[in-house]
Specification:
This protein has 4 helices and 3 strands, in the order αααβββα. With 147 residues, the protein is of the alpha+beta class. A hairpin with a 6-residue loop joins strand 2 and strand 3. Helix 2 crosses helix 3.
Length: 147
């Protein structure tokens, strides 16, 4: 895509507006929706395991490409798709690993931190949502297809 200057600039400035394949495919919105579906599936499976008496500690390892990792982290934090690509703090590099803590029954995570490439301190998700402003909050399952 870097060879396509117009689309590359759009991806860097407002990635949610990028359309490919003659305007029929929105890669960031598609990835965001898949990331949210992943969280629903993962969290649903965890709830089922807990009901069945699974002894797991609630940890789930997710291995994903950087774009999917960023979408899943932002979604877990309760931030909207419009925050994608605008904050270097959330860019998943090669082998990036984040730890995310969920409260039972909540639509977004309680806190998070980077584990790799360098461990960071815990950050409260509510603080990040306030920082981004209420207009960017998107609960899991919010329809983003209109963007």
């Amino acid at each position: 895509m870097k060879d396509d200057g117009e689309n590359w600039e759009l991806f860097l400035s407002d990635p949610t507006k990028l359309r490919l394949d003659g305007g029929t495919f929105a890669p960031v919105l598609d990835c965001w929706e898949r990331g949210e579906k992943n969280w629903h599936a993962i969290r649903s499976d965890g709830a089922i395991d807990a009901e069945e008496g699974d002894d797991a500690d609630g940890a789930t390892l997710i291995i994903a490409h950087g774009q999917m990792g960023q979408c899943m982290l932002l979604s877990a934090l309760g931030l909207g798709v419009e925050t994608y690509g605008h904050d270097p703090e959330f860019i998943f590099g090669n082998c990036g690993c984040a730890e995310i803590e969920w409260a039972d029954g909540e639509g977004s995570c309680r806190r998070w931190r980077w584990m790799h490439p360098e461990e960071s301190s815990w950050e409260l998700a509510d603080a990040r949502r306030r920082e981004e402003g209420e207009h960017t909050v998107a609960r899991l399952g919010e329809d983003v297809s209109h963007m």
